[in-house]
Amino acid sequence: MKAITANRLYDGVVLYVGPNGGFVERFEQAALFDEAAANAELEVVLTRDTAIASAYVIEADASGPIGREALRESIRRYGPTIRKDLGKQSEAANERL
Amino acid sequence: MYRYDEFDETLVRERVAEFRGQVARRLSGELSEEAFKPLRLMNGLYLQLHAYMLRVAIPYGTLSSRQMRRLAHIASVYDKGYGHFTTRQNIQYNWPALIDVPDILDELADVEMHAIQTSGNCIRNITSDPFAGAIAGEIDDPRVWSELIRQWSSLHPEFSFLPRKFKIAVTASAEDRAAIKVHDIGLRIRKGADGERGFEVMVGGGLGRTPYIAETIREFLPERHLLSYLEAVMRIYNRLGRRDNKYKARVKILVAEDAAEFRRMVEDEWARSDKDSLDAPLDEIRRIRRHFTPPKFDRLAAESEAFDAARAARPEFDRWVKTNVLPHRQRGYAIVLISLKPIGKPPGDISARQMDAVADLAERYSFDEIRATHEQNLCLPHVRKDDLFAVWRTLDAAELATPNIGLVSDIIACPGLDYCDLANARSIPIAERIAERFADPEEAADIGELKVKISGCINACGHHHVGHIGILGVDKKGEEFYQIMLGGSGGADASLGVITGRGFSSSEIVDAVERLIRIYKANRDDGERFLDAYRRLGPETFKEALYGDAAHH
Amino acid sequence: MATLRITDEGSVVDSQPKGEEISLAQWREGARPEAGRFSLSIPNTEDIDGLAEIVARFDGVILEFPHFTDGRAYSQARTLRERLRFKGEVKARGAVLCDQALFMARAGFDALEIGDGDPAGFIRALAAYSVFYQPAADATAPARVLRGAKREAA
User: Fold this and answer.
1) Is B421 exposed, middle or buried (0-12, 13-18, 19+ CB in 10 A)?
2) Can you list the residues of chain C whose pLDDT is less than 70?
3) How many domains in chain C?
């Protein structure tokens, strides 16, 4: 399966396309697509949304990013592995979300 | 230190205003990301994995207390309470929001700082010897010339869209503390035959995918012609540097193809150039030089009783002095290195609270001066020996007194896959684990000088090619692997490390480093550094330690 | 093609071509300027130093930016102005964006093909800076000269 991830334009925060087509901040809320649907949705996102700095398709299943880029995407999902107090993995971020 | 006059101030403010406009055009949708990206990069703003990253220029690594406090303030208010010093004597913030960056730049401009040309295919921050003006044996103050080059290269209308980035380093000592031979241009200030001062001009050094040591294209350039000669080098590079392949676009590729021809073209271009117009007038060089007059040192005895007594009484202080304190050219003074490599922490990182502590120390004990080194540490250049104990106590309380400068745990590491969009593997956890393995200061002191340098991708921000032990992180089908290179040096005896063989997994790499160190200790002569032992013994001994007999099959 | 012409009195946009155009390739095949105004268009891979006698026979030169990150034409323009002392119009063509306009003007361009770019944006960008650190092909005095003048006045 695939998911679509992005970075928000105004602050760079990692986003995912959610079930209703809008963006969500947590992978747990991300929508999963098959490959064709993901590519079609990415096209929509790229043409529609100017409020993101980048967007691309990743390999994922319900547990999280998988495949070759799994480590990189897992670090984007949670935060730096050497600073557990930073990024989405931190308590402060979890309260906010 | 150089202080801005009205012209410098105006230019930096105008740059902020221009960038504020560019950010506004991006946020409004007028600019696409494709169009905006090169504009933000020219002002040091990257998009990384979790957020934007802003790289702030610290010209030739020189900072005042006021500037350091402002860097701390920015870390607290706009970021997550810390910054990261880089191998280019710059500082990076890992979490700024795009909408805040114009305000951050205004905060920087208040203290005569900026992010101009900290990225992009232009002339980058000028780097130099962090001990300039403090170490004995300098032919001149390299900061004078670094500042002259900084101004000349800022917003240069001809050289802002080069084939690739361009790095210039300046030094004025026999010992090279600025790694000038791995820069696009390395300038070594020297005396000519008749005592005249000038530059040895080296071109075409660099790391990255294809590393090279720079070639000397001119043994002696009279100092007054520095800028016209740099213009000639840059023009040849801008005209002929490759633009079809970014991995072949650096000037090193042109020089490596035919150094003699490159030199001929530069000399020919220079011979035809209008030197009177291009070279800086003498009164401008004099004006800049006045900013670097030595501080008003006290007349002190060479030895300090208080210092000697503290060393005798406090072994931890004594150990720190042995590794982190260097002789100063002025009697009774010392150069203090502040390690940003606490055991088990990310190399080069510093909290806002620690930045304030360093600023306070510099103000009180070091004529208001701080330096950033290319090895990701800080330096207080002018400390009285009488004050060293007080300085150490404050550093120790701020967790800034790790006694490991030049030792195995003083590791250079790029941010790697924990932050960087380009990385293939993590660097920081490897650095942390190696430092932890050799955390015992007695053992580290016994191993002696050992430069371990780690990069998380082929771009070599962690300078792995010039590490005595270099480590390169690679991605192998989604798993991190680490290749080892041995025998590199970024000093005056510059050399490029040679890859040993197959890479090691994340769980194997620290043991592999330990095996290298064990074989070195077993084979070294008295007082022989790891690098010298490697050069004497050759790679086979070390390969055998890494791979056992497998190395021969 | 809308062209922004930069003059001492300010910048104006016009869409009228100024005379005819001959490419360097056409010149090499024998084309020559006749009566009237002619401009020579030169690819950015050419060494301008070798073209002194040719450009002297033209009223204008057109230099190319195939992509705005390809900065070779900046060197060509400066060489034309500073070494060949070319006094005619030097026009930038291709990826001409407002954020590069001031670099172009300083390198010696006095005409920019701006296409459907917003002229007001270009005119603003040309005035974004009042201080320059280095001498170039334009008439502005670099900071180091102004500093010297200020010292003498004091």
Assistant:
1) middle
2) none
3) 1
Parse chain A into domains and list their residue ranges: 2-96
Type of residue numbered B210: T
* Cβ atoms < 10 Å from Cβ of C153: 6
CATH class (in words) of the domain with range B412-552: alpha beta
Instruction: Provide CATH code, domain B305-397.
Output: 3.90.480.20
Tokens of C25: 């390739």
The per-residue pLDDT for C139 is 87
**Residue type present at position B456:** G
Minimum CA–CA partner of C118 in chain B: B30
ipTM of the prediction? 0.97
- Chain B residues whose CB is inside 8 A of the A76 CB are 49-50
Number of other CB atoms surrounding residue B246 within 10 Å: 13
- Tokens 């004091």, located at residue: C154
Residues from chain A contacting residue B52 (CB–CB below 8 Å): 11-12
Q: Where are the domains of chain B?
A: 6-58+78-110, 134-290, 305-397, 412-552
Q: Is the pLDDT of residue B550 over 90?
A: no
Say how far apart CA B207 and CA B414 lie, in whole Å.
13
Taking an 8 Å cut-off on Cβ atoms, the answer to whether B98 and A80 are in contact is: no
- Distance, in Å, from the CA atom of C88 to the CA atom of C33, rounded to the nearest integer, reads 15
The CATH code that applies to domain B134-290 is 3.30.413.10
Residue A2, chain B, CB below 8 Å: the answer is no
Cα dihedral value B253, B180, B492, B225, nearest 10: 100
Give C-chain residues touching B160 at CB under 8 angstroms: 71, 74, 103
Instruction: Provide φ and ψ at B223, rounded to 5°.
Output: -60, -30
Q: Which of B14, B239, B277 sits opposite C130 (nearest CB)?
A: B14
